[in-house]
Amino acid sequence: MLYERIVEQLLQEMKDGKRRPGDKLPSIREGAETFGCSRNTIIRAYGELEQKHRIYVVPQSGYYVAHRRESVEQVRGAEEVIDFVWAGPDRSAMPYRDFQHCMNEAIERYREDMFTYSDGQGLPSLQQQLARHLRDLQVFTVPERIYVVTGSQQALNLLVGLPFPNGKRNIVVEQPVHAGMIESLRGYRGNVYGIAYEEGGMDLGRLEVLFRDGEIKFFYTVSRLHNPTGYSHTNEARKRMVELAQRYDVYIIEDDYMGDLDGDSKYDPMFAYDPSGRVIYVKSFSKVMLPGLRLGLAVLPDGLREEFLRAKAAADVHSPLLTQGALEVYLECGMFAAHIGRMREIYRRKAVLLQDAYRKYLPRGTTYTKSYSGFYTTIGLPAPLRAQATADYLLECGVGVDPVQRMYLPEFRQEGVLRLSVSQVDERLIEPGVQVIGDGIRELLRQRTEVRFVKTV
Prior knowledge:
The chain is of the alpha/beta class.
């Protein structure tokens, strides 16, 4: 059929580099003229490409070529792969047009300031908006303690290298922990201790021993919607961790990068239990909004102010003024709150579909985290399967999953864990994708059984 030939031609042009990620496709009218067909044919072709995640639509703007991970495309055509690897925000729900308006407003508002260097701590007017926004997350602080950073990863990287007021040098991190934190810790001269973060929570007795005897500078944790497991600490566990930190003179870095997506008002951040300044609160806008925005924040005690600003100035002088201004407008006019409401609905719906598919298709002996964040969950493979070999096999079957060995310290390393994210997977592909995973696990187990039988014979 004609629409299928149009799809094939456009995919080939993308593969050949003639149409690159971010390029705008011809409008419906222009496409009909170019291909000599009806508008309905072009609409059907574009719809097919959108379902395959090869293009995305920006309302009132047009169709654009989507970005894809090279590791997926190199093995099979990207149009055939259900990609549970990429964990950026759902492109179909991104506020491109709204944020374009905010960028234009920021240019007008700060047109003179763009020709000078900005305050290294961030735009004061943005700090005011962020303080108001944080109140909805039960983080009550003054604007003067908020530091705008170029993505929360910058804050983490700087904090790892800074001397802390407690004069200690060692660090405790949850296990597993996202790969960005592992990279920030690489080559760190102090000791780095791990503590397992499992379905039942953390061993708080073990954490107390580390705090008491380990000369701990800070403890790093994602308190809710953890990467990669999707777990969240209970309020009781959060309170206890804060009490231990206060007792043993330890700081806590609470990474609340997806706190906006947590619609459960019963859960409070650790920061809410700590009037002493012992908890450093960090969050990002990348996972819930636009990764290219590269803005985050840190709420810091006064004792870290000078060292942090000095380190940040050495890293980038100040975070981009224009994007700061655009985020200020976006928060100020209520667009962010409306966007987050939509995102919560989308991710919750996807998470329910994923959990249902896990129960239906994963074989006996396979475990999985029961997270409803819509971003991350993990699958524990039955022995003796290994994550990397399983991921390679599943990719050949048309499903991309992420081995998480790189998210462990060496002594905690696990070889049988996969991470999945449904943040960018079309809802209709979640169940068939998990079915492929379940069938793949069964097939690999069958192959291992046959090999053992042959060796025995």
